[in-house]
Each structure stands twice: as structure tokens, then as C-alpha cells.
Specification:
Blueprint: H1 7-32, E1 38-39, H2 56-66, E2 71-72, H3 74-90, E3 95-98, H4 120-123, E4 139-147, H5 149-153, E5 161-168, E6 171-179, E7 193-198, E8 202-204, E9 217-220, H6 227-236, E10 240-243, H7 247-255, E11 261-264, H8 271-284, E12 287-289, E13 310-313, H9 319-323, H10 328-331
Parallel strand pairs: 3-4, 9-10, 9-11
Antiparallel strand pairs: 1-2, 4-5, 5-6, 6-7, 7-8, 11-13, 12-13
The chain binds adenosine monophosphate and magnesium ion (2 copies).
């Protein structure tokens, strides 16, 4: 059955257990207590820290001195190695781009990190006709092995997701969002949950809820705000703003009807942050674009930053009319 299914379906089906395995690695690193944090893009500021996962004030103190804008931990590195080894073993001809950069070929991946199972429920589905003849050259897989690293290091664990996005001919169409710490505060030893979507096929792994009709809720960043981010939110006049970590987590809030829009007028997100969330959201009938209302390209030669910001809306929300409320002077800060 699996070998006869179209490539896009096989890739999506393989990404579900790979993301879940990466989520287990993320939890193991946290419970092991050695996050080995590095500040990315600041080569001289290399900090290897032994961190107790139990002490949140300890985290906060460390981050006062370290800065917390673009961090990488042992969990980010290991989760990416797991996902890339798993997918590239099964799909050697597919281009895979991971946030943490290319892996070192001499770096052996532990055999129990290489997952070759597939989600049978997905393999059994009817592939949308537009992807039946898709070949490896048409596909780019975008991997964010741990979205919400700042929040992970600060103990806000349910903000963390593992993101595997599948782009076909430049469009984000398939995605897996694994949330390793789903319900961790109320239940012990939670396995996490894995949401998936394929445009034209639908979604799985979560309960679809419409957002409330009596108030307008926007979600945005909690750790990467600035004056323009704030001005864009003010222009939309929300009744409530949910400031949470991670692009994956914010799109989860849209999928589950806890917010109407995710707005981030900043160049800070990258293609691996938005490919999987965009695909799952759009598979449900929502929309994710830049702040001008245009879709990003996820082709292999694109620039990594989402340089025109993020504007996403839940199913049933009028995306175009909301985008039109962003003032021109803010849009001018994000030229195409
Ligand atoms: P946030 O909404 O701030 O949690 O960000 C969502 C994703 O975009 C995370 O992976 C962040 O690391 C990334 N991101 C957003 N803004 C920035 C920034 N200014 N610098 C580096 N990464 C960013
Ligand atoms: Mg990310
Ligand atoms: Mg990440």
C-alpha cells in the first residue's frame, strides 16, 4: 500500500512519526537537564550552560545576561538530526531545508532516532489529484525541529512545536505540527499530539473549533516585539491580544478557535517557521500570507526570512478585509 501511494502522501505520512520522535528527543533533553544553549548569529557569545529544568527564575536570570532572541539548544540540534535522517533515508531525492543548517556527514545519528514508520491513516487517504504526479524535484521540505526555543528554555513548554512543512512547486501544501508538551500541566507523562494537514485533503489530529463571535482576538509574539509590531496590532483594534511563543503554537490557536488572527509585522520569522503552519491552516480553510496579503514562495532558492511579515486568519475570517486595515505607512516598512 505505502509504496503505491503518491509521493506527497508518503512524505506527509512519514513526517508524522518523525515529528513525534523529535518531540520525544526534545523532552529527553529537557529532563536530562543539559540544554547546551548557544546564541545563534553571535559567534563570540557562545554559552554552554547546565540548566535545571525545574527552576524558572534561574532561566530568567540567565537570559538577562545572555539575550534571548535567537537561541539554539541541544534539543534543536538533535531533533533536526532525527527528522532529517529519517526523511532523507526514505526520500533521498527530496530537498530538505532545516533551520539548524546542513548536518555534518561524519556525524552519526543514533539508530533509534531514525524513524521509518508511516502514519497509516494518511496513507489510506485519497490523494488530491493535483499531487498524484508530483515528483521529488517539485518538493521542498522545510523543517523547524523546535519552534519556540526561547519559551522552551524558559519552561513555557506548551509553546513548543516541531514543524515539518511540505512545499510543492513553491506553495506550502502539506504540514505536520507536533506539540510534545500538549496538556503537560494537567496530565502526567503526556505523549504530545500531532496535527497534520494537506490542502485539498483536509486535516487530522485535533478538534476543529470556530473562534468566538462576540470578540476579536489576535495572537502575536511574546519575545520578538517592537514598535512596528505593536502599531500593526493597534490598527486592527482587537478586544484581546494573546502573546505566545512560536509560529506553530500561534497557528494552533487559530486552528482551535482560540484566536481569529495571527499578526506579526516583522521580518523575524523564517520559511521553516511558516511552511507547516500555513499548510495545516490552509488545509482547514484559513489563510496565512505576508502583511500585504500575498503568499510566500517556499521554493528551494528563496530567501529564508519571511521579510514581509505574517498575517494569518482562522477559517471563516475575512482575510482580505482584515489585511486592508494595516495602514500604508506600516506596509511601506515591508517592501516586496
Ligand atoms: P515568536 O512569535 O517570537 O515566538 O517567533 C516565531 C518564530 O520566529 C520563532 O522561531 C522565532 O525564533 C522566530 N523569530 C521571530 N522573530 C525573530 C527575531 N527577531 N529574531 C530571530 N528569530 C525570530
Ligand atoms: Mg521557529
Ligand atoms: Mg526552531
Amino acid at each position: 500500500m505505502s509504496q503505491s501511494a503518491p509521493l506527497v502522501l508518503r512524505l506527509l505520512a512519514a513526517s508524522v512519526p518523525a515529528a513525534a520522535r523529535a518531540g520525544k528527543i526534545i523532552k529527553d533533553v529537557m529532563s536530562g537537564g543539559e540544554l547546551a544553549i548557544v546564541q545563534k548569529n553571535k559567534r563570540n557569545l557562545f554559552a554552554k550552560l547546565l540548566i535545571s529544568p525545574l527552576s524558572s527564575s534561574y532561566f530568567q536570570n540567565i537570559f538577562k545576561g545572555l539575550g534571548r532572541n535567537d537561541l539554539q539548544t541541544e534539543a534543536d540540534r538533535s531533533a533536526q538530526r532525527c527528522i532529517i535522517a529519517s526523511l532523507s533515508q526514505q526520500f533521498p531525492d527530496v530537498t530538505i531545508i532545516g533551520e539548524e543548517g546542513p548536518s555534518n556527514p561524519s556525524d552519526e545519528v543514533p539508530s533509534d532516532w531514525v524513524v521509518t514508520e508511516s502514519e497509516q491513516d494518511i496513507l489510506c487517504k485519497q490523494c488530491p489529484s493535483e499531487y498524484i504526479s508530483t515528483t521529488a524535484e517539485d518538493i521542498v521540505v522545510w523543517v523547524d525541529p523546535l519552534d519556540g526555543t526561547s519559551e522552551y528554555t524558559q519552561g513555557l513548554l506548551d509553546h513548543v512545536t516541531v514543524l515539518i512543512g511540505i512545499a510543492v512547486n513553491g506553495r506550502a501544501v502539506g504540514g505536520v505540527i507536533h506539540q510534545p508538551y500538549h496538556n503537560y500541566q494537567t496530565k502526567k507523562d503526556v505523549p504530545g499530539r500531532t496535527l497534520w494537514g494537506l490542502v485539498g485533503l483536509g486535516t487530522g489530529g485535533f478538534e476543529v473549533v470556530d473562534p468566538p463571535s462576540d470578540k476579536f482576538i489576535i495572537t502575536t509574539t511574546r519575545s520578538h516585539s517592537d514598535g512596528i509590531v505593536v502599531k500593526a496590532l493597534e490598527a486592527l483594534k482587537p478586544d484581546e491580544i494573546l502573546r505566545v511563543g512560536g509560529a506553530g503554537h500561534k497557528v494552533l490557536l487559530l486552528l482551535e478557535g482560540r484566536a481569529h488572527a495571527y499578526v506579526f509585522a516583522s521580518k523575524g520569522c523564517k520559511k521553516w517557521d511558516t511552511c507547516a503552519p500555513e499548510a495545516v491552516l490552509e488545509a482547514l480553510g484559513g489563510t496565512l500570507t505576508d502583511i500585504h496579503g500575498n503568499h510566500y514562495s517556499y521554493a528551494k532558492d528563496v530567501q529564508y526570512p519571511d521579510a514581509q511579515g505574517i498575517f494569518a486568519t482562522a477559517k471563516g475570517v475575512d482575510h482580505k478585509s482584515l489585511v486592508s486595515k494595516i495602514p500604508q505607512e506600516l506596509r511601506d516598512a515591508f517592501p516586496n
